[in-house]
Amino acid sequence: MTQFIKGQWVAGLGHDVTSKNPANNEVIWSSKTATPEQVNAAVDAARDAQFDWFMLGFDARLAIVEAYRTQLEEHKAEIAEVIAQETGKPQWETATEASAMIGKIGLSVAAYNKRTGHTENDIPAGRAVLRHKPHGVVAVFGPYNFPGHLPNGHIVPALLAGNTVIFKPSELTPKVAELMLKLWEKAGLPAGVINLVQGEIETGKALAAHPQLDGLFFTGSSRTGHILHQQYAGEPGKILALEMGGNNPLIVKGVENTKAAVHDIIQSAYISSGQRCTCARRLYVEKGAQGDALLEQLASAVKRIKVGAWNAQPQPFMGSMISEVAAKGMVEAQTNLLNLGGESLVELTHLEAGTGLVSPGLIDVTRVSELPDEEYFGPLLQVIRYSDFDEAIKLANSTRYGLSAGLLADSREDYDYFLARIRAGIVNWNKQITGASGAAPFGGVGASGNHRASAFYAADYCSYPVSSVEADVVSLPANLSPGLSL
Ligand SMILES: NC(=O)c1ccc[n+]([C@@H]2O[C@H](COP(=O)([O-])OP(=O)(O)OC[C@H]3O[C@@H](n4cnc5c(N)ncnc54)[C@H](O)[C@@H]3O)[C@@H](O)[C@H]2O)c1
Ligand SMILES: O=CCC[C@H](NC(=O)CCC(=O)O)C(=O)O
């Protein structure tokens, strides 16, 4: 029983699907997909439950969301284990994902109060009141790289605001989704308030196209996000929040402590085996001896990064990629860049057939005249040597994306110059560009998002403002408008 519809676990009626541990290909979950009819039933259940969920009031909803937080705390080790097993990420990292899921509850409550909430102001003979109402029934689409934390970042604020949800997780991480739903069930969420439909693209398509949705909150690839954006064109009544990929630049300029710079570069490019939307994809390094020395140190450190299975001991820095297909895709991306004139500094290799295990790669693409503006979603960092800062910033901005960007430089003046000119939603200085804070908004511009930032600003897309001018009784104004007599 892998679909959760109207408070019941039911079997999927579609075709067989499995989820595999990408470090050894072992099947860890199997099921049948949800059919379009089951998607319809999930949307109907969410619609039936929505008004009562809203009318429960914020405090009662919060009590259930807090019970979910207790469940997350009690099952933290299990959550981290299942995420690691299903994604291949090492345990130290999935423990931080489980913690982020717990932390999301408090942050979402703070955001609800700060970004939405309720205010009243006295006006002549009455008051102006601002309230927020939920959109209604919303679909949440999740990616595989943070299968718990990122859908959770849509679901928790959506439920707090009074929406009901149909969750369609990535087909690569169904087991994590199932565990999340079991915890919501244990928390006592009323039937229909959250529903789970598992399946591949056709399940996603059936859900996204459902006429009864009031909104869709998506985290995933730019390709899928653009399809959804086109699909929602001409539907101004539906709220669409798109959190998509990036081709993120990191510039190094005038850094004294090269060891620290190498550390920030590695944490930016190779964490999660390069499978974070915020990962640095392009590294801009000044031409000359200082840049040469930095690259030499970087290449040497990249070669020493430990890669291994999620449960290997001692723990590796990089786990497996999500699948063998993804691993092969990265080898192919590297080959394409080499064919275009790139020069390998550290070769990315597929370490073991049948698995997603790859070693990290570093490639100098300075001589590639037309660098593809693609998000290579894995541990391959492209190096570009630059002559002056303006050139580096111009190259950094030459992307259709705009998610994250960073500068490693000891000069505040350089940072101010960079900050004013770079176009991205997350801009860091002397810090890794991954690991964004949930206490801040999170989203990109260009092909990275549709100006509906998530994390702390998720509250904004989970409700709409209702402005009212109110008085307790009907009364005549002190002066009637000219030309009126009653
Ligand atoms: N900006 C962010 O916050 C953020 C965070 C994490 C990941 N990402 C991005 O996500 C990508 C990796 O995730 P992914 O590969 O799982 O993304 P994906 O786009 O392949 O899939 C995301 C979800 O959309 C569904 N889907 C796919 N095609 C669909 C269609 N035509 N109609 C409806 N649903 C469809 C999938 O089944 C899945 O549930 C990377 O590009 C990464 O940068 C972005
Ligand atoms: O893969 C993309 C997300 C990466 C992650 N971002 C966040 O966790 C945003 C904060 C939040 O949603 O609470 C990162 O920056 O590493």
TrEMBL record:
Q: Which UniProt keywords apply?
A: Arginine metabolism, NAD, Oxidoreductase
What high-level taxonomic lineage is stated for the organism?
Bacteria, Pseudomonadati, Pseudomonadota, Gammaproteobacteria, Alteromonadales
What Enzyme Commission number does this protein have?
A: 1.2.1.71
Please report a single Pfam family linked to this protein: Aldedh
The segment(s) forming the Aldehyde dehydrogenase domain are 9-461
Task: Please list the residues that make up the active site.
Answer: E243, C277
The organism named in the record is Shewanella benthica KT99
Q: What is this protein called?
A: N-succinylglutamate 5-semialdehyde dehydrogenase
What's a single GO MF annotation on this record? succinylglutamate-semialdehyde dehydrogenase activity
